UniProtKB/TrEMBL annotation:
<keyword id="KW-1133">Transmembrane helix</keyword>
<feature type="transmembrane region" description="Helical">
    <location>
        <begin position="268"/>
        <end position="288"/>
    </location>
</feature>
<keyword id="KW-0472">Membrane</keyword>
<feature type="transmembrane region" description="Helical">
    <location>
        <begin position="12"/>
        <end position="35"/>
    </location>
</feature>
<protein>
    <recommendedName>
        <fullName>Amino acid transporter transmembrane domain-containing protein</fullName>
    </recommendedName>
</protein>
<feature type="transmembrane region" description="Helical">
    <location>
        <begin position="47"/>
        <end position="72"/>
    </location>
</feature>
<feature type="transmembrane region" description="Helical">
    <location>
        <begin position="142"/>
        <end position="161"/>
    </location>
</feature>
<comment type="similarity">
    <text>Belongs to the TMEM104 family.</text>
</comment>
<keyword id="KW-0812">Transmembrane</keyword>
<feature type="transmembrane region" description="Helical">
    <location>
        <begin position="206"/>
        <end position="225"/>
    </location>
</feature>
<feature type="transmembrane region" description="Helical">
    <location>
        <begin position="350"/>
        <end position="374"/>
    </location>
</feature>
<feature type="transmembrane region" description="Helical">
    <location>
        <begin position="237"/>
        <end position="256"/>
    </location>
</feature>
<feature type="domain" description="Amino acid transporter transmembrane">
    <location>
        <begin position="10"/>
        <end position="64"/>
    </location>
</feature>
<keyword id="KW-0325">Glycoprotein</keyword>
<feature type="transmembrane region" description="Helical">
    <location>
        <begin position="468"/>
        <end position="490"/>
    </location>
</feature>
<dbReference type="InterPro" id="IPR013057">
    <property type="entry name" value="AA_transpt_TM"/>
</dbReference>
<feature type="domain" description="Amino acid transporter transmembrane">
    <location>
        <begin position="124"/>
        <end position="480"/>
    </location>
</feature>
C-alpha cells in the first residue's frame, strides 16, 4: 500500500521539525532540577552520552525500516516473476516483450559497492509491522505489549498534563496554607471562601479542559502525520520562543543577581533521577517510521538526524545550565519557576502566562503524532496492511482511531493523578522502546535480509554502528538502565 503521494511529501527540514517537536516535550522541563541534583559535570557527560545512545538506536530503526522495504520489494518481484512464467506457459507463442519490474532488480546485479534499490524508506512500515516480519512469536508478543503500554501511557500522561496546565491557569492560585495536595481538586476554582456545594471546582475545570483538548486534537488522529504540518510549524515556533524566553530570563537573573544555585560538579546520588529525565527527553523511536517516510530526498538522512540531535542537546544544555545556576531552589517542572504572579509589569505577566502554557504547546503537537503511531501499529496487529483499502470504511477509518483515543481519555477523566503510570511508562517501557526493541529488530532484520537477498545487496541506509559490539553494548546498557530506574523509584518511595 503506498503510504504517501507526491503531494503529501515534505522537505527534510520539515521532517526534522517534526522530529524536534516529538523529542522536545515536557521531559526537557525536568532537566534543570535533575542537573542541579547530579552536578553540572556529571549531568553534561550523561546527557551527551544518552543523546548519542538515542541517536544510535534511531539509526537502527531507519536501517530496519529499509530492510523491511527490501523484503516487501523482494516478495513483489517474486510474485511478478511467477505471474510472468505462468503467463508465458499459458500462451501458445512466447513473449517478446520485457516485463516491467518498476524500481526492482534482481539481487545478483548488485556488487559490494553498489547500493541496491531494494533498500528504501519510501513505504511507511511501522515498528509493529517490522516485528511481524523479523521477530519470533514471543518477540512479537513482548514488542506489542511494550509498545501499547508505552504509547497508551504517553497519551494518558499528555492528556492529564495539558488539562492540569489549563486548570492551573484558569483557576485561582491555591492558598499556600493548603499543603494537602489530595484536596486541591475538590476546591472551588475561582473563590476558595465559597461553601456552596454546587460551586465549580478545580476538578470540573480539569475535566472540561481534558474534553476540550481531546476534542481539538482527535480529528488529526483520523488522518495522517502530514495533515498536522502547519500545526507542527506553529507550535515549533512557540517552543523555540518559550525556550529562548526561559534561557534569557535565567541569564538575566545570573547577570543581575549572580548565581543563586550552587550545584556540585559530580554527585552520583542524583544519577538515577538524571537518567530518568534524559531517557524520556530523547524518545522518538516509536514514531520515526511515520515521520521519515514522507521526506523527500533521504540520501543524507543520517547526517540531518545527527544535526537535529546536536541542536536538541545544545538547547537542553543551555536550559539546564542556566536554570541550575540561576535559581536557588528548582521545581521538578522548570516552568513552575516562572508561575504567573500579580506582576505590575503587564509584559512580564504575559510572558509568565505564556511559559505556564508551554506544556500545552508542546504536547498538543506530540499527542497527534503518538496517537497516529499507535493507530497504525494497532492496524498492523489486527489487519493486513498490504491490502488495507480492501477493508470496509468502519474498520479502515473509524474503529482504530476511536480505540486509540478512548482508553487514555477514560483513564485521565476518572484518575487525574497518574504518577505511577508516569514512572512505569517513562522507565521500563521507555527503556524497551528506545534501546531493546530497535536492537533486537535490527539484528533480526540483518540476518533475514542476508539470507533472503545475499551479501551482495548493499543497504545504503545501514547504520554506521553496524558492528555486533555496538549491539552488545546497548543490551548491557539497557539492563543497567533498568537497575538505575528501579533504584530511582525505590528511593522516592522511601
Amino acid at each position: 500500500m503506498p503510504v504517501t503521494e507526491t503531494g503529501d511529501q515534505y522537505s527534510v527540514w520539515v521532517g526534522l521539525i517534526y522530529i524536534f517537536n516529538l523529542i522536545v516535550g515536557t521531559g526537557a522541563l525536568t532537566l534543570p532540577a535533575a542537573f542541579a541534583r547530579a552536578g553540572w559535570g556529571l549531568s553534561t557527560i550523561s546527557l551527551l552520552f544518552l543523546a548519542f545512545m538515542s541517536f544510535m538506536n534511531a539509526t537502527y530503526v531507519i536501517e530496519t525500516m529499509a530492510c523491511a522495504n527490501a523484503v516487501f520489494k523482494w516478495k513483489r518481484l517474486q510474485f511478478i516473476k511467477r505471474n510472468s512464467v505462468q503467463d508465458h506457459d499459458s500462451d501458445e507463442e512466447p513473449h517478446t516483450s520485457q516485463y516491467p519490474y518498476g524500481d526492482l532488480e534482481d539481487p545478483l546485479v548488485c556488487g559490494d559497492s553498489i547500493p541496491s534499490r531494494y533498500y528504501s524508506l519510501d513505504k511507511r512500515i511501522e515498528l509493529g509491522e517490522m516485528a511481524n516480519l523479523f521477530l519470533s512469536k514471543t518477540g512479537r508478543t513482548m514488542f506489542y505489549c511494550t509498545l501499547c503500554v508505552y504509547l497508551y501511557g504517553d497519551l494518558s500522561i499528555y492528556s492529564a498534563a495539558v488539562a492540569k496546565s489549563i486548570m492551573d491557569i484558569v483557576c485561582s492560585t491555591v492558598p499556600s496554607n493548603l499543603t494537602n495536595t489530595t484536596d486541591w481538586d475538590t476546591l472551588p476554582c475561582f473563590n476558595f471562601t465559597s461553601s456552596d456545594p454546587g460551586v465549580y471546582t478545580r476538578l470540573d475545570c480539569y475535566r472540561v479542559a481534558l474534553l476540550t483538548f481531546v476534542g481539538v486534537t482527535a480529528p488529526f488522529i483520523f488522518s495522517n502525520v502530514q495533515k498536522t504540518k502547519y500545526l507542527q510549524l506553529f507550535t515549533s515556533g512557540m517552543r523555540w520562543l518559550a525556550f529562548a524566553i526561559m534561557i534569557s530570563m535565567a541569564i538575566h537573573l545570573l547577570i543581575g543577581h549572580g548565581p543563586q544555585g550552587k550545584p556540585p560538579a559530580f554527585d552520583f546520588t542524583g544519577m538515577p533521577t538524571l537518567f530518568g529525565a534524559c531517557v524520556y527527553s530523547f524518545m522518538c523511536h516509536h514514531s520515526l517510521p511515520g515521520l521519515i517516510s514522507p521526506i523527500r530526498g533521504k540520501n543524507r538522512l543520517g547526517l540531518h538526524l545527527a544535526l537535529d540531535y546536536a541542536l536538541i542537546s545544545i538547547f537542553y544544555l543551555l536550559l539546564a545550565f542556566t536554570g541550575a545556576f540561576a535559581f536557588a531552589h528548582l521545581s521538578d517542572l522548570y516552568t513552575l519557576n516562572f508561575v504567573p504572579t500579580d506582576n505590575e509589569n503587564i509584559f512580564l505577566e504575559i510572558v509568565e502566562y505564556f511559559l505556564a502554557l508551554f506544556p500545552v504547546f508542546t504536547l498538543s503537537t506530540s499527542f497527534p503524532i503518538i496517537a497516529i503511531t499507535l493507530r497504525n501499529n494497532l492496524q498492523g496487529l489486527f489487519l493486513d496492511t498490504t491490502r488495507l483499502e480492501s477493508y470496509n470504511f468502519i474498520l479502515r477509518k473509524l474503529l482504530f482511531p476511536i480505540v486509540t483515543v478512548i482508553p487514555p481519555l477514560l483513564l485521565t477523566y476518572f484518575l487525574e493523578d497518574i504518577g505511577i503510570l508516569i514512572k512505569f511508562t517513562g522507565s521500563y517501557a521507555g527503556t524497551g522502546i528506545q534501546y531493546l526493541m530497535p536492537t533486537f529488530l535490527v539484528l533480526s532484520a540483518r540476518r533475514h535480509c542476508t539470507n533472503l537477498l545475499g551479501l551482495g545487496v548493499v543497504n545504503k541506509y545501514k547504520s554506521p554502528f553496524s558492528h555486533i559490539a555496538w549491539a552488545v553494548f546497548i543490551l548491557l546498557w539497557s539492563f543497567m538502565c533498568i537497575i538505575l530506574v528501579s533504584v530511582n523509584i525505590f528511593e522516592k518511595k522511601s
